[in-house]
Amino acid sequence: MSIFFLPLVPLLSLVPLLLIAVYFDFTTGKIPNWLTLPGTLLGIIFFIPWFGIHSVVEHFLGSMVVGGVWLIFWHTGIMGGGDQKLMLMVGAWLGYMLAPLVLFAVAVCGGIQSIAWVLYRRQRVPELSWRQALKTIHIPYSLAVAMGTFVVIASVYLGSEWLWIFNF
Q: Is the pLDDT of residue 5 over 60?
């Protein structure tokens, strides 16, 4: 399956799930399991009408690759469990062929967001050192996940010259 032929309607069905995750992460500091776990299963099976039963394997592998990388971050305490499960869901929706691209896009968006968050925190409480600012703030990483995912979806459908690398 080529990434350029993923149907747009199912991919856009991922958008409300990501927006709900961002809302909960900002308001409660947690991403609920009732959103990520069914969302992951839905992402794995949603493409069957377009690509048949073999798409289950492709999207399951995407979930394992993307979620597996974030599992390392969760295990080391860098990210929360909700962020890891949200990445598992994104991988299920995008499949294994877009896994490297989504990992890169989310990492870049997350880096930008983290720098902005720390600068904002230090501006509000100037006596904090950088280390204290990093330890005392909760960074809702779901925003970076959502933005990175939106960048990948837009790149695939608006066309980017460099995406041929991922078209196996």
A: no
Q: What is the mean pLDDT of the chain?
A: 82
| Amino acid, res. 12 | L
On whether the CB atoms of residues 144 and 20 are closer than 8 A, the answer is no
Q: Report whether 31 contacts 20 (CB < 8 A).
A: no
For the whole model, what pTM was predicted? 0.83
Q: What is the 3-state secondary structure (H, E, C) of the chain?
A: CCHHHCCHHHHHHHHHHHHHHHHHHHHHCCCCHHHHHHHHHHHHHCCHHHHCCHHHHHHHHHHHHHHHHHHHHHHCCCCCHHHHHHHHHHHHHHCHHHHHHHHHHHHHHHHHHHHHHHHHHHHHCCCCCHHHHHHHCCCCCHHHHHHHHHHHHHHHHHCCHHHHHHCC
Q: pLDDT tens-digit profile of 141-168?
A: 999 999 999 988 888 777 655 555 555 4
pLDDT of residue 162: 54
Please name the amino acid found at residue 122.
R
Calculate the alpha carbon distances from 29 to 33, 35, 73 in Å.
13, 14, 17
Domain boundaries, the chain: 3-166
